[in-house]
Design goal:
By secondary structure, the chain is of the alpha/beta class. Helices cover about 35% and strands about 15% of the residues. Strands 1-2-3-5-4-6-7-12-13 form a 9-stranded mixed β-sheet, with helices on both faces.
């Protein structure tokens, strides 16, 4: 019964759906089923009409419009921030509840090259937050903003997208909140996933006074490293002249899960510790997959994708996709005969940011060329958008708290990069215990970039960050939930802060969180 349940209820979404929504999961997963926080002020009513906010004066900022949103009754403000003499235009979207403000400000993140959008504010307003989002200086999700009209790098636009846009949105949002309610928000929070997760950690690194608490999910940190690395599976297949069909990639993933799932003592279609899984796809050579024979050439492609980008001398460049992860997301192929179909975001990174040629033919990229451009990406963009500075001392000293989450089956951003970053934070900030006083990393086995998959989805992180900041209650664990198609909870698991993980205690239902204990990863 359990095996049928896992196949029916926890099936991964189709790759086309993943790619359509990838890098834009943003804040939706932290809004679902969360209880609205309690109000912080007895009198939280506006002290002025919505339309009067056009009179608020802020440096280099124009209040473009104010209106009452008929769908939720909130005061919606649109503003434009510039940085003379560059001529840039950062659009800022602010939503202020006319009734039921909870006394807090919440910044929402974006996805991919999109800094964010006004549509993300609705859920925040429903929970009583004054909330903000921004396009970080350009409309849409294309990376073409990196080049100006003459085809040269537009560094102001790049900086706006990398870090300035979110900070400006925060300044404007908090000022408008103060003007509308006659008092400043007592606490401010930033919530984001993917690019939004990166934006949150960038705030902690560059602007430690902006937010009291941050939720950073599957964060796109190490952007300058992992994003070019996302093109690696296509480079491997071009070099091998072997484009592997989805059925074979799925077969390799399924075989790895079958081989390594039992290592944690529970068979549930989930690899709890992907780094312990050493399954080799050579075991599939000669088998029939969808009326086609799995070859040694297919196995070698899969090995190199799992291994991750390497230089010509075999030197490590970046982490590969973990075993158990959907390979087709980045190793997408289609057509007859099969050809590669690269994920658009890393492809545009090469075209607009590295090569500065919108028409560049990616099929000309050799392993030697890949290493060259990968190193260029690291050297050219690490300081502006890398978001990998482990020095969070100013954020810690002002009392800031951050919860980081990452799915261990993330098919777009390898979780190992986030783990590496957190380890560097621990080294910089005084060790495991000192770091855990203000920053905690939770790893979710069996879920992908959108926190979907065979494993249960993390819940309660918004409540956890509020209680940590406002009450001093340290999040010793989160609860992950798996639900059936009717929304009924059918599986729960505890998620413990790194370097701890959940281990089945040996008795009771494996679908109940109470039957798991905390152990150190690798033991």
């Amino acid at each position: 019964m359990k095996e049928k349940l896992s196949l029916r209820l926890f099936r991964l979404p189709k790759t086309s759906v993943i790619l359509a929504t990838a890098f834009s999961v943003a804040v939706a997963f932290v809004q679902a089923a969360e209880v609205p926080p309690k109000p912080l002020f007895l009198d939280a009513n506006p002290v002025c009409p919505c339309e009067s906010l056009t009179e608020v004066t802020l440096p280099n900022t124009t209040i473009d419009s104010t209106t009452i949103d008929p769908s939720d009754g909130s005061c919606r403000v649109t503003a434009t921030v510039t940085h003379p003499p560059s001529g840039d235009r950062i659009k800022v979207f602010i939503a202020l509840p006319v009734k039921g403000w909870n006394g807090r400000f919440r910044g929402n993140g974006g996805g991919g090259f999109s800094g964010g959008s006004a549509s993300s504010l609705r859920g925040s307003v429903a929970q009583g937050f004054a909330a903000g989002a921004t396009d970080t200086g350009h409309e849409g999700g294309s990376g073409s903003f990196a080049l100006d009209a003459n085809g040269r790098l537009n560094w102001q636009a790049i900086q706006d997208n990398a870090y300035l846009g979110i900070h400006e949105m925060t300044v404007v949002g908090q000022a408008l909140t103060r003007a509308f309610y006659g008092k400043a928000p007592k606490y401010s929070y930033f919530v984001g996933s993917s690019t939004g997760g990166r934006q949150g950690l960038m705030e902690a690194q560059r602007y430690p006074n902006d937010y009291n608490g941050i939720i950073s999910a599957c964060p796109a940190i190490n952007w300058h490293r992992f994003l070019p690395a996302d093109l690696w599976p296509q480079v491997v297949m071009v070099a091998a002249q072997n484009f592997v069909p989805k059925a074979k990639l799925d077969a390799a993933t399924a075989a790895a899960v079958a081989a390594c799932d039992p290592l944690d003592g529970v068979t549930d279609d989930v690899i709890d510790e992907p780094t312990r899984c050493d399954y080799d796809p050579g075991a599939l050579v000669g088998t029939n997959v969808n009326d086609s024979t799995f070859t040694e050439a297919d196995a070698e492609v899969v090995r190199k994708i799992w291994e991750g980008p390497r230089g010509l001398s075999g030197n490590f460049l970046w982490h590969g996709l973990a075993r158990g992860t959907d390979l087709f997301a980045l190793a997408n192929t289609s057509g007859s005969p099969l050809t590669g179909k690269p994920f658009i975001i890393p492809l545009e990174w090469f075209r607009f940011f590295l090569i500065q040629d919108p028409q560049w033919d990616w099929t000309t990229l050799t392993p030697a060329g890949f290493e060259f451009y990968w190193r260029q990406s690291v050297e050219q963009y690490g300081a502006v958008i890398g978001t990998d500075d482990p020095n969070l001392e100013p954020f810690r000293e002002r009392g800031g708290k951050v919860i980081i989450l990452h799915g261990l089956a993330d098919q777009l951003i390898p979780a190992q990069g986030t783990i590496d970053y957190y380890k560097r934070v621990q080294q910089r900030m005084g060790g495991v215990e000192k770091t855990a006083e203000f920053a905690r990393l939770f790893l979710a086995p069996g879920v992908d970039h959108g926190f979907r998959g065979a494993g249960p989805t993390p819940t309660g992180q918004l409540e956890a960050i509020l209680r940590w900041v406002e009450e001093g209650t340290v999040p010793e664990k989160l609860i992950a939930e798996g639900r059936d198609q009717n929304g009924k909870i059918v599986r729960t698991r505890p998620l413990f802060p790194y370097p701890q993980m959940a281990k089945y205690k040996g008795s009771g239902s494996t679908d109940e969180a109470a039957n798991f204990v905390s152990v150190e990863i690798g033991k």
